[in-house]
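> agent: user asked for a holo structure of the chain below bound to NAP. Plan: (1) validate sequence alphabet, (2) canonicalize SMILES, (3) run complex prediction with ligand conditioning, (4) return tokens. Step 1... ok. Step 2... ok. Step 3 dispatched.
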Amino acid sequence: MKACITGASSGIGKDMARVLADYGIDLFIVARRSERLKELQSELSEKVSVTAITLDLADEQSCHLLYERLVKEDIDILINNAGFGLAGSFADCDLAKEMNMIDTNIKACHILTKLFLRDFVKRDFGYILNVASAAAFLPGPMMATYYATKAYVQRFTLAIRKELQKQHAHVFVSTLCPGPVQSEFSEVAGVKFRIKGKSSYEVAKTAIDEMFAQRAIIIPGKLMKAAYVCCKVLPLAVLLEVAYHIQKRKQAESK
Ligand SMILES: NC(=O)c1ccc[n+]([C@@H]2O[C@H](COP(=O)([O-])OP(=O)(O)OC[C@H]3O[C@@H](n4cnc5c(N)ncnc54)[C@H](OP(=O)(O)O)[C@@H]3O)[C@@H](O)[C@H]2O)c1
């Protein structure tokens, strides 16, 4: 089998590459930092074939280039993991950074899902794993755009999954919704988690195993599973208040 992982230069994506390599799956790893990709390539190339592709996926054209580069490779697994967050009140957050986030978290995931899915459906086989977040469960005051991007990823993945189920396709799409994870995410987003995040390897292993088990929503850990249930039952007004205070404290503690 062959897999393409975006955002494989650090954190969850890098560990997903390690997990897939242990399963003997050849890899195409994508991110902007080529040195990081090369390091991972040399770490894993004794186990499987690893191709590093340096691209900025916030650029729409790069998404099309990636697909064209891989179209002849008969990829079996697409993992849309590249993404980042940005903390702060909506009025204060930089518009250009937000647009870049929407391009990376939503647009690239949307384009790549569509292009690869069409081939998977024709072949009647394939897996797509779209990395959302527990942020997809509720609106996120003080991190409004990030939470909204992850809600998009989760909702559109679940809708596509239903379409595929109705067609009896052997194409399986899943969405990963982790809570805090130890990675470069918090530094990039400008937050400090109040609870110790899960290790990126633990999250990656759960994600890959549950993707192969064809689970719709993958939520690593009991705490986040409980949070998911709370978000389903608590009134929206309560959730908004709680989310506001959590984000506000995370941002204050990062300074
Ligand atoms: N850490 C958490 O607490 C957490 C929780 C829930 C969900 N998530 C989600 O998990 C995913 C992975 O995050 P992480 O925690 O592993 O953080 P990370 O260590 O910062 O990794 C983010 C990855 O995305 C890549 N990336 C960012 N912008 C890109 C772009 N324009 N083009 C190509 N690649 C790009 C980065 O590579 P380059 O910088 O080299 O391009 C990096 O490999 C993200 O979608 C994030 O939203 C994280």
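> agent: step 4 complete. Summary for user: The chain has one domain: 2-253. The longest helix spans residues 95-123.
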